[in-house]
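Chapter summary example: a protein plus zinc ion.
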Amino acid sequence: MSAAGCGDPRLGGHRPPLQTPTQPSTPVACPARDAYNEGVKKKSRARAALRKAAEARLPTRYGTFRIVGLENGRRQWLVALLKGNLRRAAAPLVRIHSQCLTGDVFCSERCDCRAQLELSLKAIARAGAGAVLYEPQEGRGIGLINKLRAYALQDRGWDTVEANRRLGFPADRRNYALAGAALRLLGLTRVRLLSNNPDKVAALERAGIEVVERVPCQPATRRGTRSYLRVKKAKLGHLLEV
Ligand SMILES: [Zn+2]
């Protein structure tokens, strides 16, 4: 059989003859198929590769940062707010923040997201170097509309974990592979992580980032937020004092 006739119509070949029981069952060597598969793998890796798409200055009420937009060919993106000379800092403060429209933008008191973001920006500005990675993982990864559905269930008495599960989702659907790739791209392989979430520490370690210290990220919150924090502590294992 010729190399072009390996059976994959995408290669312009034709189906191979059916094997008879007397033929060996080892795969037929096919350079064209192997080259095609290697090409697919290369394209997949290129799509997965994260790159800087844009970078600009961003003055904020907490000081001036650089804002960097990162994206890959799979339509995944995140934003990094960078402060100071990160390559000179031994293990800069880093916050991986999951987008929360209701908290970050509308100042919701259902959660502590905005307060944690503000605390992080202040701490990084004070330290003179650090990074906030802002990732679109709304509602612990279930998306904005499903988060609002979960809120509706919480209004009827379910807690945040029960509500996600009643909607058919795990309690926390986030993953931090993209954040790990972003940190590596930015040259941040040793960090002090601003977080109360031990899963986040473990996930970054798995992504090849050394977390030399977990720095608690627990801002003062209003009474209405505390029941949510108690659930995060009891059911999600977050390291909180409530
Ligand atoms: Zn929130």
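Key point: The radius of gyration is 24 Å.
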